[in-house]
Amino acid sequence: MRNISAAVAAIALAGFLAGPSSGEELQASQQQAQPTTPAPFVTVLGSWQAETILGKDVRSKANENIGRVVDVLVTHDGRARAAIIDFGGFLGVGSRKIAVDWEALRFVPTDDGRNAITLDLTRDQMKAAPEYKEKRVVMVLGAAAPAQINPYE
Predict the structure, then answer these.
(1) How confident is the model at residue 41 (pLDDT cuts 50, 70, 90)?
(2) How far apart are the C-alpha atoms of 48 and 113, rounded to whole Å?
(3) What is the pLDDT of residue 16?
(4) Full-model pTM
């Protein structure tokens, strides 16, 4: 049994030593052995197909100024879950950040081809909402009760 193992080791060593002899051959074999990275996928969007929402004003259905979108919370798989709205105050003084359920937002086309953001909540509901604070449990304000609450989502 030892003789067989020694013979296999000798053959493997001989194959290794008999590998590419010149630098060019060695480089070519290394390039072939490395997996190639596929080219990135590119999607072209027209200006009417997507727009940024950070910094956009949010209004209630009654056309009351609710605040401005300052952040978006996403789940681990990248789905938008809540918008953080800077609510109340004057020139940033006395304002609070409120987490609002993404489904409570409505993107309504305007005459200039952009979207206005409206919210299915009133100013009074926003006033009563708990404040959003980073790295703490997030209380998300929604227009209607969700069918099922999953704290691990």
Answers:
(1) confident
(2) 7
(3) 47
(4) 0.63
Looking at domain 57-141, its CATH superfamily turns out to be: PRC-barrel domain (2.30.30.240)
Beta strands in the chain (DSSP E): 57-60, 65-74, 80-87, 96-101, 105-109, 115-119, 140-141
Task: Tokens for 6, please give them.
Answer: 């020694």
Q: Cα 151–126–64 angle (5° rounding)?
A: 135
Whether pLDDT at 120 is above 70: yes
d(CA 94, CA 91): 9
Among the residue ranges 18-22, 49-53, 92-96, the one predicted with the least confidence is 18-22
Closest alpha carbon to 131 in 67, 90, 93, 86: 86
What distances in angstroms separate CA 148 from CA 20, 97, 126, one per listed residue? 63, 25, 23
In angstroms, rounded to a whole number, what is the distance separating the alpha carbons of residues 55 and 52?
A: 8
